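Tokens in:
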């Protein structure tokens, strides 16, 4: 079934590429853009679940002794509400991974938007890398625990497929097991890559959309695997925390096709969250609360053994300069950055999970030509 689906998507891509050479109008793009950025036809329901994975321990973290009994994952859910007389699902499942020192509801603008367009979206509080590391007295945020987060993603996929397959469960019949995607921001972007590419990937994931991923650690060899899923990488060109070239562009160069790279001109690292936080203030908070040496050490230790190293991150060494990132004169309005990411994710998952080919113009140079605040590259299957 998966092989047939891949050929079907390739056929649609080639067919639409031929059509684009002969037709297409600004009116079509404008209509698609409005459709993608506007909430979809579904009313959105929400739920909060306290889930616990007993198959893997929570590691010790400084004064926190760890929890050998398992990993706590408080998870937020956004889903299409049922409509009278209509079947509710099945829908594609999307797992959203939050960033370092962040939390499960950091980007509701996106998770709720996707649910309104017919996706079942879940987002956990990771036990150590987010604010839960502070609020649950777990020794503070541990960035190195990112290596365990692909396991958390797989656990959530297992759990929600179980819910969907259980008669009488509130989510019974709502999830399509063949349509699963992952997205996430910053450290969650790194989690997205780990969950979809390389030796830690979950084979059920069919599409990946990392936002401003911490990705400079990945060596080209990491992506030399047989299995690859479509990926769209989005980052702001004014991101001072995970700079565009060292992270997004470097990863785009190394991953296999089909792949897309979106640079939001003047976009920032924190422009993908719900709160309008100044970029430099966010960077200072990371340095103060976590400490640069602790961050780097945690990352270096976590990626050891998975064809990743700090070599690709040498260009980011200027982050230690107190004056780094002080010139932020070309910053885009955060609402516009969030809007662009919603447009691209709606189109990307719509095409690669649902097979909706009408979204293809947004995933082409055609949309980028009429969107001056976007830099766009793509490479399709040969």
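Residues out:
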């Amino acid at each position: 079934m998966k092989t047939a689906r891949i050929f079907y998507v390739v056929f649609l891509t080639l067919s639409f590429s031929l059509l684009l050479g002969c037709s297409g109008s600004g009116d079509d793009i404008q209509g698609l853009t409005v459709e993608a950025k506007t909430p979809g036809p579904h009313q959105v329901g929400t739920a909060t679940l306290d889930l616990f994975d007993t198959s893997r321990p929570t590691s010790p973290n400084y004064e926190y002794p760890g929890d050998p009994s398992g990993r706590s994952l408080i998870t937020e859910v956004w889903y299409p509400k049922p409509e009278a007389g209509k079947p509710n699902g099945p829908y594609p499942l999307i797992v959203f991974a939050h960033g370092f020192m962040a939390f499960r509801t950091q980007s509701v603008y996106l998770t709720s938007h996707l649910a309104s367009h017919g996706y079942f979206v879940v987002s956990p509080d990771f036990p150590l890398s987010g604010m839960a590391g502070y609020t649950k007295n777990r020794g503070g945020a541990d960035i190195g625990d990112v290596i365990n987060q692909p396991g958390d993603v797989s656990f959530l996929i297992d759990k929600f497929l179980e819910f969907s397959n259980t008669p009488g469960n509130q989510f019974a019949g709502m999830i399509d097991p063949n349509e699963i995607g992952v997205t996430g921001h910053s450290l969650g972007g790194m989690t997205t890559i780990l969950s979809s590419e390389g030796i830690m990937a979950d084979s059920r994931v069919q599409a990946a959309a990392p936002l401003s991923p911490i990705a400079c650690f990945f060596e080209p060899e990491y992506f030399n695997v047989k299995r690859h899923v479509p990926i769209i990488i989005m980052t702001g060109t004014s991101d001072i925390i995970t700079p565009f070239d060292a992270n997004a562009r470097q990863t785009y160069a190394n991953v296999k096709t089909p792949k897309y790279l979106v640079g939001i001109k003047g976009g920032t690292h924190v422009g993908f969250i719900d709160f309008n936080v100044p970029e430099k203030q966010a960077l200072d908070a990371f340095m103060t609360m976590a400490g640069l040496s602790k961050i780097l050490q945690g990352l270096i230790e976590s990626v050891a053994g998975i064809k990743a190293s700090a070599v690709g991150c040498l260009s980011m060494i200027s982050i230690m300069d107190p004056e780094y990132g002080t010139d932020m004169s070309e910053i885009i309005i955060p609402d516009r950055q969030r809007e662009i990411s919603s447009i691209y994710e709606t189109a990307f998952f719509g095409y690669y999970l649902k097979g909706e080919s009408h979204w293809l113009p947004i995933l082409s140079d055609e949309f980028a030509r009429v969107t001056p605040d976007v830099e766009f590259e793509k490479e399709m299957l040969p």
